[in-house]
Records
---
Amino acid sequence: MTLLSVEHLRIALPPGADRSHALYDLSLQLNSGECVCVVGESGSGKSMLAKALLRQLPPPLEVERGRLLFRQQSLAALSEAAMRQLRGRDISMVFQEPMSALNPLLRVGEQIDETLRAHGVKSSHERRRRVVDLLGYVGLPDPERLRLAYPFELSGGQRQRVVIAMALAFDPALLIADEPTSALDVTTQAQILDLLRKIQQDKGMALLFITHDFAVVEAIADRVLVLQKGHVVEQGTAREVLRAPREPYTRQLLAAVSAQPLSPRGTVHGAVVLKAEQLGKVFSSRSGWWGRRITHALDAVQLQLREGETLGIVGESGSGKSTLGRCLVRLLSADSGRIEWLGREVATLSERRLRPLRSDVQMIFQDPFASLNPRQTVGHIIMTGPLVQGLTKVLAEARARELLELVGLPATAFERYPHEFSGGQRQRIGIARALAVDPKILIADECVSALDALIQVQILELLESLQRRLKLSIVFITHDLRVAARLCDRIAVMQGGKVVEQGETAQLFADARHPYTRALTGQTLEAEVT
Amino acid sequence: MLVFRRFVRQPSALIGALFLLLLTLLASAAPWLTSGSPWEMNSQPMLAPFHDSAHWLGSDLLGRDLASGLLYGARVSLAISVLASLATLVVGLLVGAVAGYFGGWLDGVLMRVAEFFQIIPQLVLAVILVSVLEPSMLSTILAIALVAWPAVARLVRSEFLTLRQREFVQAARVLGQSPWAIIARQILPNALGPLLVTMTFVMATAILTDAALAFLGLSDPEAMSWGYMINASLGLLRNAWWMSFLPGLAIVLCVLAVNRVGEGLRVAFEPGRSL
């Protein structure tokens, strides 16, 4: 039976937006017990669909044309009170960021309790039983105790489970999940997807799953709808769309998430340019009155990077990979061990002595929005490095213009401010800034993880071509093994501050030794679309 | 320029700014607008306002013209508050920037010193300082700056602490930019908004502190000021209320205007938080 049907939905954007409509003409049928994935890049309008279904479009947006039918009844015709009853009871929602969906000051049990009370469960005894049931049902350990925990005491995955438990409070007929796994680690992501799949089959619930990630589609979808800039590009069963995509855009998206190397990579025989030996870093934080909690962010890490080589550092959040990157570029000082830049020991060098050497090792940062000074023009940002090196203003400007061209940005970018650029363009500016001082070594810390899949490929390709042209050596830090596989000659896998395995990329995929690596590659390969 | 447009769009802030501008113009033109020294006893004493066109705001106990007193008072009040704010800014910025950027034990020491100044009641400290240093314009400025800098230093420090962690600052470090260049070119321009807003409030406080000191008789005996005028006419509050009311009104309007400008700046810098 058709539970939800969307007919010719069209949502207008306010004048001055980048296009006239958020969604042009979207039609969709969703049956009970079925999972439909809506796939698209950021700005494709996929979240607008969810908001329209819940009648929570941010003003001034509104449905211009089309009908939304839930159980054959038009959602537009419902009163606000009836709609409120529907939300949370028959239609529930799970968001991307569990921390912002939870009130940080309330115990998680109380938050679920609140939902139950808001929809009229009077008996407090019954509510409490239901809370414990729900927390247990979503696979949280020891629900009796966990219901008294505050959100900050839980891990990201556990928080998302709590949010799912909240959404399931009334056995909704339709669950809308908007990127519920994007903020989670790869292994946690797989667990949450399993959970959602299990619940959906268990309860015969309909699931509308919004995502940008084809790996997620493979894991969970019955049917897929591909959106591009508000237009439905392709719609069909998951099998059809994934195995035999009809549209070029879908094919492009699928190619973007493959784990095949961008180009065949020969073996590298260059000299060692960067070396870390027995690197250790300890963070200690106060816990309680006298106690100190000690975290080994880095534990005897050994690495070396040859000229022209790309070394991937892969690990989940908290594995110490970012700390490693920051130590290698000496933004942090390691507590023990040695770091060599081009054969010169730098781990213990003072900041002042280090400064003249800094141009050899540069960094590309994760967040394309936070990594550029909002008050400087792009030209000034790129000129910073050359000016520090002592170039005259005229020469530095010439150098900056040269780099804009090198990273594929128009010359007009020079006078403009960072906020006028998209994420991918900003990342190019960040790369230009790093390259302006002629570095030998680049350390890229999650430099594509904030970008859309197609843009990711462009930036990876840019990095690779720059590497070939400028003989760069790159340390590529990422949480995404698939991305690492596309670019890296060798990969080091980190867990709990240690490098647990290190090897040639192909070999690592074919024959991983460490159980953790096997878990990572297993999941990635499973999700890989060929 | 967006900031400027958002500022101009707020009536109260615009009126405040125009009022201050007008006051500054009048104060700088005081020697030409009045008949000379504000101390000159040139009329019948205790003349009520609007009775004599030559002294339209009336005169005080000794027959000194109130209008010229107010104008010359504005000179003193504005000069002291601007200079004291600048001095506060310099000290607060320096201490806050060093504490926030370098951190560590230096931060600890500087913040303990700031706390030391903050736990002493501000006016009491100012009074003690001025009386020890002999009342003069310089000592008033010094006293105001000395009690006001910890607040600015703390603000600058907290701004620096967050901005220091931002990736563009780290990128500048990796590029080898020196700490002082990073502070001046990367961090400071991004901290300017909140700093400017705080400075207006420091200035309002400076006007009040200056008036309070003058009222207590701790001001430059050579300079006519609003606080002094209130002090001199206090005994005649019931017979000649306007003599203390007019300078009081001047203080209120001036502080109000500065405050509105500050509020307007705050809204203009952070449009998101205006509601």
---
Amino acid sequence: MTTETLIWLIPLPPVLAFFVIMLFTNRRKGLSHWLGVGAVGIAWLAAMLVFFRAIGTEGLAEHPFVSAIPWLPTGDTFFRIGVQVDPLSAVTLFFVAWTILMIFIYSIGYHNYGQPAGEHDRPGFPPEGATIKDEKGHTHKVPSVEPMYSRFFALISLFAFAMFLLVLTDNLLILYVGWEIMGLCSYLLIGFWYGKESARAAMIKAFLTTRVGDVFMLLGLAALYSITGTLNYQQILGNPQVLEQLAGSLSPVLGLSWAGLIGILIFIGTVGKSAQFPLHVWLPDAMEGPTPVSAMIHAATMVSAGVYLVIRFFPLISAGWAPGGELTTSMLVMGIIGAFTAIFAATIAVAQNDIKRVLAYSTISQLGYMVAALGVGAYVAAAFHLVTHAFFKALLFLGSGSVIHGMEHGVLHTGEHIDAQNMLNMGGLRKKMPLTFWTFLIGGFALSGFPLVTAGFWSKDEILSGAFSGGQMGVFITLALAALLTAFYTMRQITLTFLGQPRSKAASHAQESRPTMVIPLVILAFFAVTAGWAGIPEQFPGLGGLVPNWFEEFVGSMLRNEHGAEASHSLVPLFTSLAVALGGLLIGWLVYRGVRQARDPLEKALGSLHTLLKNKYYVDELYSLIFIRPSIWLAETFTDKWLDLGLIDGILHAIGRLGLWMGRLLRNVIDLPIVNGAGDAAANGTRGLGAYLRTRQAGRVQLYMVIAVGLLVAAGLLFYLLAGTI
Amino acid sequence: MIPISWYLIVAAALFCIGLFGVFVRKNAVGILMGVELMLNAVNINLIAFWHYHTQVMANPPQISALVYVAIVFIVAAAEVAVGLALVISAYRRRQTVVVDDMNLLKG
């Protein structure tokens, strides 16, 4: 099979799996997960084939694997859609295929496949555990299988499809399609346990927040299409004339060039999707979803898509920039937002107690790193960190899921009512869950940038040195501080969770997770270490040059203009990253090693600063005050109560009342007195006459006679009087 | 010479007395007597007009009025005979001659 055909086929199995599971195998849990895992397995196999063919091809950046078909007639031309694999999509494809496959396998164990169904489990709620009897007659509470097991696999299959689509496409429109399908899947999966109020709120929050970014991105897309007439990567990004034209022409907004405006608009899409400040608020809340979802969507793949987009559009964003020269406006914006997000989220992560929330903020912070790296022009470093981060963050999330699972087992076993996700309730899990501990340790060290052995060190070091040699000292210092905090909160997490003594009964009864959960951890841990070796800088003292800096050559070839950001490798960033990583880890260990009660020692030391961090700088409250409450006020009070109920309904009611009033008037004036009155009068008169006449007919003949004579006299008088006239 | 109007006034008075008696008397016999008075008032009228017509105006003699008066007498006598018989019969049955009490036909 040709490589192009293979590329076309990669996204296909997951989407087929989605439809088959949704339509046919919804009731068969086992079949559903085999379909999902099988489909992703096929996609993974094809992706690996494509990847290895891609890295074996010379000059892939100039001549990527491309295949396109005419799709939508636009006037006298066709809008063509197709697939494209160049070095950037190849490496993205590599980590996406791996993490997705691992997460699928992990989900089988995470959703307790093979366990009995719980007595009180309902769709839309997390399983609460089942009671079983063993042969001796003892009853145990054990984890129970997820009621909507098949639905989960269908949704993550659809998600996998969208991610593959996004990575493999050759134009921005299909990328946007994949982007939005992922948004939908994210919405559905965050609210997977839709019975929980918090999950419903989180899903809506995530959807609306990312939508803000998406609208701007769509504007950028439309602007790009209206100017260049195409959305194809090659025709825009691979064409220096188009880039020059975009960079040289002035847009109507704020005196930006078109390249600057489009770059910023596309970057706002990334801000939403990759949870950068100020649209970061949805990501921590998205932890309401099942942990594999947190790992896949909100750490490894979907949020990476935002960074992938800006890396992809780096030529446009940096159009007009020469290495070492003045940054373009969009790069400056990215540098500031990225660096700020990195330190901002890192400080919040320090004060969070929920094991997943710490990781969520750490994800935001690390994505900020990548964005900042692009902002200072460290293109390869950003891509490199994207890959390594995907591996170790997926590992950490899955590890945290394993920890929560172990804790939930302990909670079910002991019947203790504690939060299974709160790290302060854990401790000492090292001995209970050794495999989870070691893999989590590797992931955590990779995240902190533990020197030499972990992937995170190499990629983070590159970003720091990129910022340093690019002359962006502000960014460099901010990122170094963020790295220190990263190492600190990672060590805090490891210490609180795994080291020391158990701080709850549940923690002392925790149990290692099942093989389907642990094996993916081991594989991801392998990549969390080795992925870094693909990109050891050649100038690195001692180790540089032992292994060729393959990543730099491969992905760096994407940029036509050779830039020298990485050329001068100073020792300052190296020592900085060594110092912050080791220093942070050491401080974290020293502060948290002696924690006995479920109380954070920093709470006392930092005082109100800790409260501020714990409440995430009150950004949610601020947004609630600025955006949400006014919106609700606008909707409920202004539009509904005043405009709709008051004004429009008021007019309608007034018209109604007018009609009613006129009806009453007609009734009172015409109907009742005249029509009814005449009818009643006729009836009453008849009746009255009858009643009167009846009294005359009393059987008294003499009276009849009086009447007869009276009438006779009257008739005679009449005759007498009329006689003269006639 | 007595003018005819005097006869007529007497007759009218007699008729009215009879009529009044018929209207107000409760006694059946009294009613019959009223009827007799009215019949005789009519007879007075007949005779008065006959006398006026033949004697005063000196028209050719006619006896039709006298015959008519005789027939009225006969009818009156027959009527009283039947009426009194009925009253006696009713009295025997109901021990009363008051017409208001003779209400067998009342629904």
---
Amino acid sequence: MKKPVADHHYHYPDPERRQLLRFIGMGAIGGALGNIGGVAEADQNRLHRRANSTTKPGADSDRILVVIELNGGNDGLNTLVPYGHGNYYDARKALGIQPDAVIPFDGSFGLNAALAGLHQRGLSVMQGIGTTTSPNLSHFQMQDRWYRGDIDGTYTGETGFLGRCCDAVKGDSVVTGLSLEYTQSPIIVAKQARTATLGSLEGATALFAKENALLPDGIAAIHKARTEQLSSLFGTAREAMRDMVILSNFLRGVAAPSKGYPDTTLGEKLAVVSRIIRTNGGVRVFHVPYGDFDTHTSQGNKHTPLLKQLNDATSVFLDDMQASGYGDKVLIATISEFGRRVQENDSGTDHGNGSVAMMAGPVIAGLHGEAPSLRNLDADGNLKPTTSYGDYYATLAAWLGVSDIVLGSPLPLLASATQANS
Amino acid sequence: MSSGNRHAEIAHILRRATFGPHPGNVEKWVEPGPEALIDSLLSGSPQRILPAAEPAAEPGDERWDDVVKGFFTNMHSANAGLHEKMTWFWHGHLTSSDQKGGPLAIYRQHKLVRSLALGNFRELLRRITIDAAMLRWLDGNESRGDAPNENYSRELMELFTLGPGNYSEADVRAGAKLLAGWEAHWPSQIVRFRPASAYKGKVRFLGRKIRAGKESYSRVVDAVCDHPKCAPFIASKIHEFLIGVAPDPVRTDKLAEVFRDSGLEILPLLREIMTHPDFLNLRLNRPRYAIEWTTAAAAVLGRSSQANIWAMTPLGQTPFRPPNAAGWPPASSYLSSQQMLSRLDVLGWNWTEENSALGQRLINSDDPAEEVLQIASLYEVSDTTRAGLVSAARRAQPWDIPNTMLRLALTSPEFVIA
């Protein structure tokens, strides 16, 4: 037997180089399939069967949901600007978006002009979204509720809102839901469906490097399911390794990157989402965390640029989906744990409640919902939401043909031809 | 007590209270025994801050790399003990990022945390409340009495001392007023109190009437430290870090009592936690944090501290770059498929040469499976893992032995769980 030569073990790349390597295509890494062990091989076959099946974009069961999380609490008032209201400029003396930087919906409200590209492509803006029961101004408490789809603070289940969507649409997919970050988010935790976290595609197929040829068999032997455990965590650890093999396998066949994505965090993430969607391998739900919208200070320098990056990356993504035949199959929706206080502090805004939710794709473009009053605020000086985020969540679920997984009723925001396939 | 169990106990103590074990350390402590090791850890001396010189204030200063490498080097050192482990704990608890504070501010904060990691909690909290990196990270720097910024006031109570539900929104607003007025100068990062930026007058905070002024930050810290929920909150978090589970209510009361009676001294609390039978008995009950896995794997592989700094991004635990004010996510999130992908990738960049001492030791062993378990300080091993290692060794050509065995062992459940 000839001694194999390892591919890449003699040099350490410096961090900058690693950054460059991220998201570069994986064709060069993949070699022969190798023996991946029983479970993974079966999954690989299923993936191929699926990819080669006649199910093309067009069938309802192929609808895809991409949720972009505006992490940190997006300022709804500087996203959907009440530019016709004097109260807004009184409260936002330093930070108010001036009328000339607004795309009007009507004489009262307009979109921050940073979102022009999305507006042009048809953006649905739902105002007054938030928690109508027991608001909480802690990021961590409200994120927890949004992640788990705990609308009124009484949900006690272990799955996340997107995880429940995945459970409902699972089908025969190898992977049904993906969260695009390095650490696991509770939002994607499912019971039956396989969901995974994926920070980048870098290293995703290290398993197939030449020098690792003996690993798949070893991993299959060590990480067998239903084997003895020294503690309850052993099962979790072994399952994570088995999922890693399946995920590696899945990602090895991923479609080539599309051109034109901006070189931003969100641009890179949406480029990965596009590659996975175009692989047509059955991933139905994506969670894409983005940004630090927690603009306590220097909001003027941060917030509009964050919206601009959202606009630029998502516009390219929408065009990419349109061009590759997925235009009517992919719904993009934003979530954020809360909005910001109406009254600015010295140079930023503190945690608030009501905010806006945005959707793009097959939606009814324009402004929806009832505007919360800028004068009749709650005891903490925050907007009183007019629509529960449960209703918004129910809308996203309905897009996937799913109901009864969250407390709320769907809103009429989806384009009529694609309303919930009931 | 069987000696196998004794080895496992020593390895367990070193996993939890240090960043090891380093190969050979377990054997060294078998004879003195677990109690002696715990004693030695509780009386160990701190490592010095690395590098000794301060970086410049501006982001992008080349010396910034040295600051991250310095912390990394200290954690990777075979001399890293309980002080180093608690420095990491406090960095995650009273956390800040260099991305808002810049290199010089975060270096000084790190120095402060190192100096009080086993010291007095009230003193640590007092000083970090007006620390330049913290003032920038949680926006105290831009808070003015007439337009107070609530960020630090809220996180001080929610994340640092009391936990949610133990204060009101009125307390958050009052705290913000009492904390306003402290500013870090740029680029010196010297912190000064500016009366013009402070609130004027008295406010009620956690039931105490406090007059705003230069000393009011200190009154705020006293009010949270004296709050009945503070001692149990801190004690419980440290217990979970070291023992893997939150203490039950009776135990929480006991820990809080010890902590309070000592005047919030950290070392007596650690002694109470580490000398309780639970510390030795509750093994393999929490995942290793990414940082613990990386340092322990590097120790096994005989790698220098700096080779794997880049890996902390995909592993999600870069020092001085916490994801948010809550620090890094709980241990339970480190057993994901993404973690396993990243870890396998990291091991891919840490090649063990055939002719290195480690390579030779594994190739020449009669039982490479047993050998790799010993090198990795794994003494409690499931039959499935052992059988998998044995069969992998049987099928491997000699040149495949070192890297195959090490990669399988370092991704086994036994090694990824603390």
---
Amino acid sequence: MSDLSPQTRRLLELAREGDPMPRRRRARLETKFFARLAGGVVVGIAADAAWGKAVPFFGALTKGIAGVALVSSLGAGGYFAVHALRHDLAIMHTSDRTHGTNAPSTHAMPAAQPVAPEPAPRPTMAPIAQPMAPEPKVVAALRASSDDRREVSTRRTVATPAVARASRAASHGPVATAPAVAAQNPAPEPAVAPTPPEQAAPARPPSTLSEETHLLAEADQALRSGDTGRAVALLDEHATRYPDGTLGPERGAERIVALCKMGRTDPDTVNTYLAAHPNSSFSDRIQHACARILSRSKRAAR
Amino acid sequence: MSSGVHAIAATEEACIPPVGHSRSIHDFREFYRAHVEFVWRGARRLGVDESSVDDVVQHVFLVIHRRLGDFRLDDLAGRGSAKAWIFAILVRVVREYRRTTRRKSPHAVLPHTDPETIEDLRQPGPHEWLAKVEAARVVQQLLEELDDEKREVFVLAELEQLTAAEIAEVTGVNASTVSSRLRAARRDFERAAERHRRRDTWRLG
């Protein structure tokens, strides 16, 4: 069946494993990717107009870089570094355990999930993805059931910035998605989400990386400008809205810094966090912010 | 969905986040981690040059991220193979990449060794590793002698070890075309390998 010589076969066999992705490069790429992912969306919100309808293929990514810069300037860039450094800890869960408010609740909204396809990133992600003309069969088959949703999303991508924003505002996180998707989709799955009524309000922003990033960036800004109370409030809001969010670990770190600055935490919490995230790029910041609290515990130990 | 894709699904089950409870965007990072290496390697093998490979990988995941909005990871795990699905996206992103960077930039021609690849050599048995890394380097070089269409099927068949049916599914090319392309690709690759061996022998001899 093959025209390959045994020598060539052997060469290919060896080559299959001869190209591992270098660890550090992997880490760097992950940091960059998630920053870009969030950054691109930030650009979409801050400068919708800059995203023309026909963004050239790699042009879109270049603009994404601008987005990263924007996020970084808001102080959010650091959120992503953490993950790169600890990507061996495959699951991000530990930070939430260190303080009560952030109890993970994976099962909080099972009924809303099936019809909650993360609508928000589309307005900005879509222009990038649109040049992907021929849709793979595999994908087509997988998506056969979501055709009408796709239409909705396509329409959204060509909408004006204002409309895009409006549609984003009218959509909602996993919690609140059910009603609006039901409205778009004539044959909705039974969406009896066991969620508190106020969370089901359609005005809730969507639980997406972009919204999460926004919230955390705002909190970070508040924290850096000395408005610790507001920072904590925003972080708590993040915890309530996205108990299981992608940026949970970042929220945890940020929260510790805030609480330390307010003197409202204890050394154990801080040490537990630091022990759980030994490589976190937040470590320095936490240690700096919590120096007084930590030294107090050392004195007490003596 | 063809049986081919299901066949890959069986071998790839392990890469897919466990099914059973609600999963959404917060699983994306896990999904990313489970597949980034294979996307990265695939991109290189498909002929994306070193300086653009990160961009291509990111682009693939941006597309995945967007598409994941249309169905859940559960669907992916239950109904098909993540690997085949990702490959289908990767192949298209790479094609698009080739269209936009039609003729290679002068930098792209220079073989480039990522210094970080070298530090990874400290893993088990330096000889074994060197042999593998060297083989990968040579194969990469030989792949460059294939034209894009042939390289695509060759990489999927010989390096990623997909069957012809799976390749047809992933590339959107019909199965008989895949077979004939693969035959031609093997012939070309073999010739290139033979030339390479002769060069080496000459140099050593």
